[in-house]
Specification:
Blueprint lengths: L10 H5 L12 H6 L13 H13 L4 H14 L1 H10 L1 H8 L3 H7 L1 H4 L6 E4 L6 H5 L9 E5 L16 H14 L6 E7 L5 H5 L14 H17 L4 E4 L4 H11 L5 E3 H21 L8 E4 L3 H16 L4 H6 L1 E4 L14 H4 L11 H8 L3 E4 L9 H10 L4 E4 L11 H7 L5 E4 L6 E3 L2 E3 L2 E2 L6 H11 L6 H13 L3 H5 L10 H18 L11 H6 L12
Parallel strand pairs: 1-3, 2-3, 2-4, 4-5, 6-7, 6-8, 8-9, 9-10, 10-13
Antiparallel strand pairs: 11-12
Length: 546
Amino acid sequence: MNTLERPNLTGVELLHNPVFNKGTSFTEKERDVFRLRGLLPPRVNSQEQQVARALESLRRKDSDLERYIFLMALQDRDEKLFYRLILDHLEELVPIIYTPTVGRACQEYGHIFRRPRGIFISLEDAGQVASLLCNWPYKDVRVIVVTDGERILGLGDLGADGMGIPVGKLSLYTACGGIDPTLCLPVTIDVGTNNEELLRDPLYIGRGHHRVCGPVYDTLINEFIEAIQGLFPHALIQFEDFGNRNAFRLLAEYRNKVCAFNDDIQGTAAVVMAGLHTAARLTRKSLAEQRYLFFGAGEAGTGIADLLVEEMKRGGLSEKAARGCCWFVDSKGLVVSSRHDLAEHKLRYAHHHPFVADPRSIIEAVQPAAIIGVSGQPGIFSENVLKRMGELNERPIIFALSNPTSKSECTAEAAYRCTAGRAIFASGSPFDPVVIDGQKFIPSQGNNVYIFPGIGLGIVASESRRVTDKMLLAAARTLAAEVTETDLAEGRIYPPLARIREVSLKIAVAVANEAYDQGLAAVPRPPNIASYIRAQVFEPQYTEYV
């Protein structure tokens, strides 16, 4: 997928172009041909030497936020060096360019803003969105991540400052999935913010008015979707961090019309589905034999449950019986049919049961095999809750998935300690290894980075016209199959992040196969899909231009 092969720039313009710039790695001949002589220090460095220099500078920074700023500046200056550094140090740097650090970066976005990335669309652009998108310098866009900033991670409404999320997600599409960065477009649709602190902040980068909704909002979103179809007809659109009121209905509106999915709903669902498949190897119980209790009844929780129901139906369970395995807790308590305050997306999981509000009492009433935290309520998996889960289950499944770390339902240390090391644990943000009675556990990060880059790669390679549940389930099963017995023995239910490109390629193959099997692919089926996709993967290596 390397779309640009040789620069048509010279001198300072070439050095300021992040796609082609190689810094001190330009060869002697290149310095002559491209009029760089004297603009660079005389010594020619290898890319490996530049990586070492960048890593040394990065590690001198005093905070993760400063490291984030350094990496974004590097991305603006030299994309191949940026991605080479990330790929060589994935486990260290993914938490910097994405969760948890990206959350703090979004909170500070107006104060750390350096150079713009992506496209900003505001209400004032209504009627001219297509011409605005034409300002983007790359004309073959294949992956778009778009947000309106209303629900950034677990941090709430950050308005236009939420642009850090599309930028970060697309960095992971490239680093972890191998999609050429010139094929990626981050978009923020600024319809205002209800965050009063931001509205008072003179350095806020967005429009200074309260959030607009209703027909005006819908018209702008629809204009954006139509403009994308006209300008970038092969693009995958990923909805990211929209509030619940819009996330579900936008997905329902567009998923069967264009190639689109919602990562908070469907990406989270697929990665958790993979974790539950892996956990079943440890509990030695099928998915249908276990009861799942979701803390958080928003887009992530109901998305997970919907995909879990589809997988159990595939295993022979009726839809009613599958839904009966999934229980929910929202901000008021247990979601039950006697309540009259339930949003539409909660109704299908509202069971006939007395209402219970206290988390410990809810555990007692439902007696789940798994508790899945997508609530953004830090510490809701209290010591009492965790201990009771350990009493009810030989291998309790405890997924504390809310991001960033400050919003996690419990820590890894608490999950293992309160269950005598028997918990099957995953979190949304990374936790350090934990030692219990001399045994070391490596907590798994149930991060969507395990899923969406591979899905995107498969969609881009096949030019699929849609993203379907069958693709998501294929991705989840493929991810689960990559967990080894050694991983399980260490407490992992996901493969090590260092293997993410290999894993993403296998997921891409599974997704592309589904696209072909469902008749959704727009390019002919190649004889060997894996080889076909592998040949398109972006490798951040410097090449000689002359």
